[in-house]
Amino acid sequence: MKICVITAARSEYGLLRGLISELLKRPGADVRLLVTGAHLDKDAGNTVGEIYGDGFKIAAKVPICAGDSKLGVIDTMAAAMSKAGRALAKINPDIVVILGDRYESLAIASACCVLGLPIAHIHGGELTFGAFDDAFRHAITKMSRLHFASCEAYRRRIIQMGENPKTVFNVGALGVENISRLPLLSKSEIEKATGIADASKTLLATFHPVTTETDTQEAQMEELLCALASQDKYFSLFTYPNADTGSKKLNKMVLRYCGKYPSKFALVGSLGSLKYLSLMKYCAAVVGNSSSGIIEAPSLKRPTINIGSRQDGRIRAASVIDCSAEKGAILRALARAGSAAFAKSLLGAKSPYGGKRTAKLIADKLLSETPKITGKKIFFDI
Fold this sequence. Notes:
The chain is α/β, with parallel strands linked by helices. Helix content is 43%, strand content 15%. Strand 11 (285-288), helix 12 (292-295) and strand 12 form a beta-alpha-beta unit.
């Protein structure tokens, strides 16, 4: 069976890595990687090197990035549909695996529909009201034939959207499984690998573009940077944001603070999954608006300061502190996250996303359910 796995960004590749490894072990699974998007963009970290570093063969590299303005994103989507569509027609897989909700993924899913290629979608049914990805995710769900949800509430929502329950599976989150799958570095090892002095006094920070609030996202980032610069307890290690609308301007803002406060800020393109999760294990808190603070951090018993609206709608653990993108609110959230009482509460924190055998469960279902996909897709009425 020929299985094509799509990856367009470091964030989703870090989640897919374990599934790719699992599929490569399976007799009869012919795994083809289609690499596109930010992986091939030097301004976004050129993270295709991580894929080669893991020893995976790439079936097709499809450069599509056309800039991070709104029109640039539209041009990128158009290129993704055309160029990835041609690559998929050449590969001609039995099924295409797409994770998440990015605009490149929507375009590629549309190409799959035209080509008659069935899609297996991972992380459907979730809500993120602060990003236009919310609509893209649901659209990809409606184009897909197999669905792998990260928790039961999301499985039910996918069925509510008219998907046959026989095709919808609650498998947990690949990101949570990565925590037990990867040989995480020790505190001293991650400090040496990143060059930071003390991981326990480091904030692991990412602030992605807020694509439904592009007119205020730079002001929100300025509030975050100003808050972190005004305190002396923590060092802030930022990773690049997603290649969404306005991402380059956000990077420049962080670089400006790195130059002004070199003892308080650093910016890296990508840590890779191993170093990212290893630092998360020992950091003082995860800060920003990344889904990793909602999904992975609770399993490592680390506090998350979730800023603004980007992740609104996602199910949260008790370890997540929500606050507005305002300096005072961020500083109050930092104080709470660093308190003895909150540290004690983390011991009982539980992730709602499971994830102990996720890659195996998805691989099993891909191999057993794909041959059953026939005929037209029928809307399932509840």
